[in-house]
Amino acid sequence: MADIVLSYARENRQQAESLAGALEDAGWSVWWDRAILPGVSYEQVIEAELSAARCVVVLWSAAARQSNWVRDEATLALSRNVLVSVILDASEPPLGFRQQQTANLEHWDGSATDPAFALLTQGIAKVMAREGSHGVPPAPVVTRPAKSSKRRSAAVIALVMLGSFLAGGGAVIWSTGYLGSGTESAPPDGSPAPRNTRNSTAPRKNEPVPPSHALLVPARASLMLPRENVTLTILSGALERVNADTRALTLHIRVSNSGRRSFYRTYHSSLRLIIDGVPRAPTDSPSEQVEKLSAREFDYRFDVPAAATRAVLRLIHDDQTAEIPLDLTPPGR
Question: What is the DSSP pairing of strand 213-214 with strand 230-241?
Protein backbone atom coordinates (compact mmCIF):
# COMPACT_ATOMS: atom_id res chain seq x y z
CA MET A 1 0.00 0.00 0.00
CA ALA A 2 1.12 3.58 -0.67
CA ASP A 3 2.22 6.14 1.92
CA ILE A 4 -0.13 8.80 0.50
CA VAL A 5 -3.51 8.59 -1.23
CA LEU A 6 -4.67 11.55 -3.34
CA SER A 7 -8.40 12.31 -3.44
CA TYR A 8 -9.60 14.80 -6.07
CA ALA A 9 -12.36 15.65 -8.53
CA ARG A 10 -11.80 14.58 -12.14
CA GLU A 11 -11.74 18.25 -13.17
CA ASN A 12 -8.49 18.59 -11.17
CA ARG A 13 -6.77 15.54 -12.62
CA GLN A 14 -3.86 17.51 -14.09
CA GLN A 15 -3.12 19.19 -10.76
CA ALA A 16 -3.37 15.83 -9.00
CA GLU A 17 -0.85 14.32 -11.40
CA SER A 18 1.60 17.19 -10.83
CA LEU A 19 1.27 16.90 -7.07
CA ALA A 20 1.64 13.12 -7.13
CA GLY A 21 4.90 13.45 -9.07
CA ALA A 22 6.28 16.07 -6.70
CA LEU A 23 5.43 13.99 -3.62
CA GLU A 24 7.06 10.92 -5.18
CA ASP A 25 10.18 12.97 -5.87
CA ALA A 26 10.16 13.92 -2.19
CA GLY A 27 10.53 10.23 -1.32
CA TRP A 28 6.97 8.99 -0.67
CA SER A 29 4.91 6.45 -2.55
CA VAL A 30 1.65 7.96 -3.83
CA TRP A 31 -1.56 6.24 -4.95
CA TRP A 32 -4.28 7.83 -7.04
CA ASP A 33 -7.01 6.26 -9.13
CA ARG A 34 -4.90 6.15 -12.28
CA ALA A 35 -3.29 3.07 -10.71
CA ILE A 36 -6.48 0.96 -10.79
CA LEU A 37 -6.08 -1.99 -13.14
CA PRO A 38 -8.77 -2.98 -15.64
CA GLY A 39 -11.18 -5.59 -14.31
CA VAL A 40 -10.57 -4.70 -10.64
CA SER A 41 -13.40 -3.45 -8.40
CA TYR A 42 -13.04 0.34 -8.22
CA GLU A 43 -14.74 0.66 -4.81
CA GLN A 44 -12.80 -2.16 -3.16
CA VAL A 45 -9.42 -0.86 -4.32
CA ILE A 46 -10.14 2.69 -3.16
CA GLU A 47 -11.42 1.52 0.23
CA ALA A 48 -8.37 -0.68 0.78
CA GLU A 49 -5.96 2.12 -0.13
CA LEU A 50 -7.78 4.71 2.02
CA SER A 51 -7.85 2.35 4.99
CA ALA A 52 -4.12 1.60 4.81
CA ALA A 53 -2.63 4.96 3.78
CA ARG A 54 -0.46 6.81 6.28
CA CYS A 55 -1.86 10.09 4.95
CA VAL A 56 -4.78 11.06 2.69
CA VAL A 57 -4.36 14.34 0.81
CA VAL A 58 -7.69 15.75 -0.37
CA LEU A 59 -7.61 18.39 -3.12
CA TRP A 60 -10.51 20.76 -2.48
CA SER A 61 -11.91 22.87 -5.30
CA ALA A 62 -15.31 24.07 -6.45
CA ALA A 63 -15.69 20.76 -8.32
CA ALA A 64 -14.48 18.66 -5.39
CA ARG A 65 -17.03 20.27 -3.06
CA GLN A 66 -19.77 18.88 -5.31
CA SER A 67 -18.28 15.37 -5.48
CA ASN A 68 -19.80 12.74 -3.17
CA TRP A 69 -16.75 10.56 -3.78
CA VAL A 70 -14.33 13.23 -2.55
CA ARG A 71 -16.49 13.94 0.51
CA ASP A 72 -16.71 10.23 1.32
CA GLU A 73 -12.96 9.76 1.03
CA ALA A 74 -12.27 12.87 3.13
CA THR A 75 -14.65 11.65 5.84
CA LEU A 76 -12.91 8.30 6.06
CA ALA A 77 -9.53 10.03 6.29
CA LEU A 78 -10.90 12.34 8.99
CA SER A 79 -12.18 9.38 11.00
CA ARG A 80 -8.65 7.88 10.88
CA ASN A 81 -7.03 11.21 11.74
CA VAL A 82 -4.84 11.12 8.60
CA LEU A 83 -6.52 13.90 6.60
CA VAL A 84 -4.54 16.69 4.93
CA SER A 85 -6.66 19.23 3.05
CA VAL A 86 -5.29 21.22 0.10
CA ILE A 87 -7.01 24.23 -1.48
CA LEU A 88 -6.70 24.49 -5.27
CA ASP A 89 -8.87 27.57 -5.88
CA ALA A 90 -10.79 30.27 -4.03
CA SER A 91 -13.33 27.79 -2.61
CA GLU A 92 -13.32 26.71 1.02
CA PRO A 93 -13.50 23.05 2.11
CA PRO A 94 -17.07 21.93 2.93
CA LEU A 95 -18.47 22.24 6.44
CA GLY A 96 -16.99 19.56 8.65
CA PHE A 97 -13.52 19.88 7.14
CA ARG A 98 -12.67 23.54 7.80
CA GLN A 99 -11.11 22.86 11.19
CA GLN A 100 -8.59 20.51 9.66
CA GLN A 101 -5.09 21.33 8.46
CA THR A 102 -5.30 23.19 5.14
CA ALA A 103 -2.57 23.95 2.63
CA ASN A 104 -3.04 26.58 -0.06
CA LEU A 105 -1.66 25.49 -3.45
CA GLU A 106 -3.88 27.82 -5.50
CA HIS A 107 -0.81 29.56 -6.96
CA TRP A 108 1.61 26.61 -6.85
CA ASP A 109 3.73 26.45 -10.01
CA GLY A 110 4.58 22.76 -9.66
CA SER A 111 8.05 23.43 -8.29
CA ALA A 112 9.41 21.38 -5.39
CA THR A 113 11.14 24.53 -4.11
CA ASP A 114 7.89 26.50 -3.78
CA PRO A 115 7.43 27.46 -0.09
CA ALA A 116 3.78 26.37 -0.16
CA PHE A 117 4.74 22.88 -1.32
CA ALA A 118 7.58 22.73 1.21
CA LEU A 119 5.19 23.49 4.07
CA LEU A 120 2.75 20.92 2.71
CA THR A 121 5.43 18.21 2.83
CA GLN A 122 6.24 19.23 6.39
CA GLY A 123 2.59 18.87 7.35
CA ILE A 124 2.34 15.45 5.69
CA ALA A 125 5.41 14.29 7.61
CA LYS A 126 3.79 15.44 10.86
CA VAL A 127 0.60 13.51 10.15
CA MET A 128 2.53 10.38 9.21
CA ALA A 129 4.61 10.53 12.37
CA ARG A 130 1.46 10.95 14.48
CA GLU A 131 -0.38 8.20 12.63
CA GLY A 132 2.46 5.72 12.87
CA SER A 133 3.53 6.37 16.46
CA HIS A 134 0.48 5.16 18.42
CA GLY A 135 1.67 6.95 21.53
CA VAL A 136 5.40 6.52 20.82
CA PRO A 137 7.39 9.70 20.06
CA PRO A 138 7.21 10.31 16.28
CA ALA A 139 10.01 8.84 14.22
CA PRO A 140 11.51 10.85 11.35
CA VAL A 141 10.25 10.16 7.86
CA VAL A 142 12.76 7.95 6.04
CA THR A 143 13.33 8.91 2.43
CA ARG A 144 13.05 5.94 0.10
CA PRO A 145 15.99 5.04 -2.13
CA ALA A 146 15.71 7.04 -5.35
CA LYS A 147 17.64 8.26 -8.31
CA SER A 148 20.29 10.90 -7.69
CA SER A 149 18.01 13.64 -9.04
CA LYS A 150 15.34 12.69 -6.53
CA ARG A 151 17.86 12.77 -3.70
CA ARG A 152 18.85 16.28 -4.71
CA SER A 153 15.18 17.29 -4.82
CA ALA A 154 14.61 15.87 -1.34
CA ALA A 155 17.61 17.79 0.00
CA VAL A 156 16.39 21.04 -1.56
CA ILE A 157 12.91 20.48 -0.11
CA ALA A 158 14.36 19.88 3.36
CA LEU A 159 16.32 23.15 3.23
CA VAL A 160 13.31 25.12 1.97
CA MET A 161 11.11 23.55 4.63
CA LEU A 162 13.51 24.64 7.37
CA GLY A 163 13.83 28.13 5.94
CA SER A 164 10.09 28.55 5.49
CA PHE A 165 9.44 27.38 9.03
CA LEU A 166 11.99 29.74 10.55
CA ALA A 167 10.66 32.63 8.50
CA GLY A 168 7.12 31.95 9.64
CA GLY A 169 5.96 31.60 6.02
CA GLY A 170 2.31 32.42 5.49
CA ALA A 171 1.74 30.46 2.29
CA VAL A 172 -0.08 27.72 4.19
CA ILE A 173 -2.75 28.06 6.87
CA TRP A 174 -2.30 25.37 9.52
CA SER A 175 -4.68 24.55 12.33
CA THR A 176 -3.71 22.61 15.45
CA GLY A 177 -1.78 19.47 14.67
CA TYR A 178 0.62 20.27 11.82
CA LEU A 179 3.13 22.73 13.14
CA GLY A 180 2.32 21.86 16.78
CA SER A 181 2.81 25.00 18.85
CA GLY A 182 2.14 23.49 22.27
CA THR A 183 -1.62 23.60 21.77
CA GLU A 184 -3.61 20.43 22.06
CA SER A 185 -3.52 18.22 18.97
CA ALA A 186 -6.48 16.33 17.58
CA PRO A 187 -7.19 13.03 19.40
CA PRO A 188 -6.33 9.83 17.51
CA ASP A 189 -9.97 8.99 16.76
CA GLY A 190 -10.20 11.99 14.40
CA SER A 191 -12.63 14.09 16.45
CA PRO A 192 -11.75 17.76 17.13
CA ALA A 193 -9.68 18.50 20.22
CA PRO A 194 -11.74 20.02 23.07
CA ARG A 195 -11.36 23.79 23.38
CA ASN A 196 -11.82 23.77 27.13
CA THR A 197 -10.41 20.77 28.96
CA ARG A 198 -12.60 21.50 31.98
CA ASN A 199 -15.66 20.78 29.86
CA SER A 200 -14.16 17.81 28.00
CA THR A 201 -16.30 14.68 27.82
CA ALA A 202 -13.25 12.38 27.71
CA PRO A 203 -13.03 9.89 30.59
CA ARG A 204 -10.95 10.96 33.57
CA LYS A 205 -7.82 8.98 34.26
CA ASN A 206 -9.35 6.96 37.11
CA GLU A 207 -12.85 6.73 35.67
CA PRO A 208 -13.81 3.12 34.76
CA VAL A 209 -14.40 2.38 31.12
CA PRO A 210 -17.95 1.19 30.37
CA PRO A 211 -17.97 -2.62 29.98
CA SER A 212 -19.13 -4.41 26.88
CA HIS A 213 -22.90 -4.50 26.47
CA ALA A 214 -25.67 -4.96 23.95
CA LEU A 215 -27.06 -1.87 22.24
CA LEU A 216 -30.71 -1.04 22.88
CA VAL A 217 -32.04 -0.85 19.32
CA PRO A 218 -34.73 1.83 18.77
CA ALA A 219 -38.26 0.70 17.91
CA ARG A 220 -38.03 2.38 14.52
CA ALA A 221 -34.56 1.35 13.42
CA SER A 222 -34.95 1.48 9.64
CA LEU A 223 -33.49 3.76 6.98
CA MET A 224 -35.20 4.06 3.59
CA LEU A 225 -33.95 5.07 0.15
CA PRO A 226 -37.25 5.67 -1.69
CA ARG A 227 -35.89 5.94 -5.22
CA GLU A 228 -34.00 2.66 -4.99
CA ASN A 229 -36.70 1.02 -2.81
CA VAL A 230 -33.97 -0.13 -0.43
CA THR A 231 -34.37 -0.38 3.36
CA LEU A 232 -31.61 -0.76 5.95
CA THR A 233 -32.77 -2.12 9.32
CA ILE A 234 -30.65 -2.40 12.47
CA LEU A 235 -31.32 -5.90 13.84
CA SER A 236 -28.92 -5.76 16.78
CA GLY A 237 -25.88 -3.94 18.10
CA ALA A 238 -23.11 -4.32 20.64
CA LEU A 239 -20.55 -2.05 22.27
CA GLU A 240 -17.22 -3.63 23.16
CA ARG A 241 -14.41 -2.09 25.17
CA VAL A 242 -11.25 -1.56 23.13
CA ASN A 243 -9.18 0.52 25.55
CA ALA A 244 -9.59 3.33 28.07
CA ASP A 245 -10.58 5.81 25.37
CA THR A 246 -12.39 3.77 22.76
CA ARG A 247 -15.28 1.34 22.35
CA ALA A 248 -16.15 -0.63 19.22
CA LEU A 249 -19.77 -0.37 18.09
CA THR A 250 -20.91 -3.27 15.89
CA LEU A 251 -24.25 -2.94 14.12
CA HIS A 252 -25.87 -5.98 12.49
CA ILE A 253 -27.90 -4.56 9.60
CA ARG A 254 -30.27 -6.11 7.11
CA VAL A 255 -30.25 -4.54 3.64
CA SER A 256 -33.57 -5.25 1.88
CA ASN A 257 -33.68 -4.49 -1.84
CA SER A 258 -37.25 -4.34 -3.13
CA GLY A 259 -36.17 -2.54 -6.28
CA ARG A 260 -35.58 -3.76 -9.80
CA ARG A 261 -31.82 -3.22 -9.80
CA SER A 262 -28.91 -4.50 -7.73
CA PHE A 263 -27.90 -2.26 -4.84
CA TYR A 264 -24.11 -1.96 -4.56
CA ARG A 265 -23.67 0.83 -1.98
CA THR A 266 -23.19 -1.46 1.03
CA TYR A 267 -19.64 -0.28 1.67
CA HIS A 268 -18.38 2.49 3.98
CA SER A 269 -19.31 5.53 1.90
CA SER A 270 -23.06 5.05 2.46
CA LEU A 271 -23.12 5.02 6.26
CA ARG A 272 -21.82 7.51 8.82
CA LEU A 273 -22.00 7.51 12.61
CA ILE A 274 -22.37 11.11 13.79
CA ILE A 275 -21.02 11.85 17.29
CA ASP A 276 -20.87 15.44 18.56
CA GLY A 277 -21.34 16.62 14.99
CA VAL A 278 -18.34 14.68 13.66
CA PRO A 279 -19.05 12.01 10.99
CA ARG A 280 -17.24 8.69 11.42
CA ALA A 281 -16.87 6.09 8.69
CA PRO A 282 -16.99 2.39 9.57
CA THR A 283 -13.66 0.79 10.36
CA ASP A 284 -15.01 -2.49 9.04
CA SER A 285 -17.82 -2.88 6.51
CA PRO A 286 -18.85 -5.02 3.51
CA SER A 287 -18.15 -4.17 -0.09
CA GLU A 288 -20.80 -6.26 -1.76
CA GLN A 289 -24.08 -5.87 -3.60
CA VAL A 290 -27.63 -6.93 -2.80
CA GLU A 291 -29.44 -8.39 -5.80
CA LYS A 292 -32.88 -7.09 -6.76
CA LEU A 293 -35.86 -8.41 -4.79
CA SER A 294 -33.61 -9.89 -2.10
CA ALA A 295 -32.15 -9.15 1.33
CA ARG A 296 -28.77 -9.69 2.97
CA GLU A 297 -27.34 -9.05 6.43
CA PHE A 298 -24.00 -7.39 7.18
CA ASP A 299 -21.95 -6.21 10.16
CA TYR A 300 -20.65 -2.63 10.32
CA ARG A 301 -18.13 -1.64 12.97
CA PHE A 302 -17.40 1.90 14.21
CA ASP A 303 -14.85 3.11 16.76
CA VAL A 304 -16.49 5.51 19.22
CA PRO A 305 -15.13 7.52 22.17
CA ALA A 306 -15.64 5.71 25.48
CA ALA A 307 -17.48 8.74 26.91
CA ALA A 308 -19.97 9.06 24.03
CA THR A 309 -23.60 8.52 25.05
CA ARG A 310 -25.48 9.64 21.93
CA ALA A 311 -24.96 9.07 18.22
CA VAL A 312 -26.86 9.24 14.94
CA LEU A 313 -26.55 6.64 12.19
CA ARG A 314 -26.84 8.47 8.88
CA LEU A 315 -27.42 6.88 5.49
CA ILE A 316 -26.27 8.95 2.50
CA HIS A 317 -26.93 8.11 -1.14
CA ASP A 318 -26.64 10.90 -3.71
CA ASP A 319 -29.06 13.60 -2.45
CA GLN A 320 -31.01 11.21 -0.17
CA THR A 321 -30.35 11.18 3.58
CA ALA A 322 -31.99 9.26 6.43
CA GLU A 323 -31.06 9.01 10.12
CA ILE A 324 -31.56 6.84 13.22
CA PRO A 325 -30.71 8.19 16.69
CA LEU A 326 -28.79 5.75 18.92
CA ASP A 327 -28.38 5.63 22.68
CA LEU A 328 -24.87 4.45 23.62
CA THR A 329 -25.38 4.77 27.39
CA PRO A 330 -24.30 1.62 29.26
CA PRO A 331 -27.02 -0.13 31.31
CA GLY A 332 -27.48 1.23 34.79
CA ARG A 333 -26.23 4.74 33.99
Answer: antiparallel
Question: For residues 135 and 132, what is the distance between their CA atoms, to the nearest angstrom?
Answer: 9
CA distance 93 to 83: 12
Give, in degrees to the nearest 5, the angle at Cα 105 between 77 and 59. 30
Residue-wise pLDDT tens digits, 195-216: 333 333 344 444 455 567 788 8
Q: At how many degrees (to 10) do helices 148-166 and 115-133 cross?
A: 90
- CATH of region 4-166: 3.40.50.10140
Domain boundaries in the chain?
4-166, 213-327
DSSP string, 10-25: GGGHHHHHHHHHHHHH
Identify the segments of the chain with pLDDT beneath 50: 35-37, 39, 133-153, 155-160, 162-207, 268
User: How many residues are given for the chain?
Assistant: 333
Look up residue 68 and give its amino acid: N
CATH number of 213-327: 2.60.40.4170
- Sequence-distant (6+) residues with CB within 8 A of 177 are 101, 126, 127, 130, 185, 186
User: What are 138-165's pLDDT values in tens digits?
Assistant: 333 333 444 444 444 454 444 445 444 4
DSSP states along 60-91? E-HHHHT-HHHHHHHHHHHHHT-EEEEE-SSP
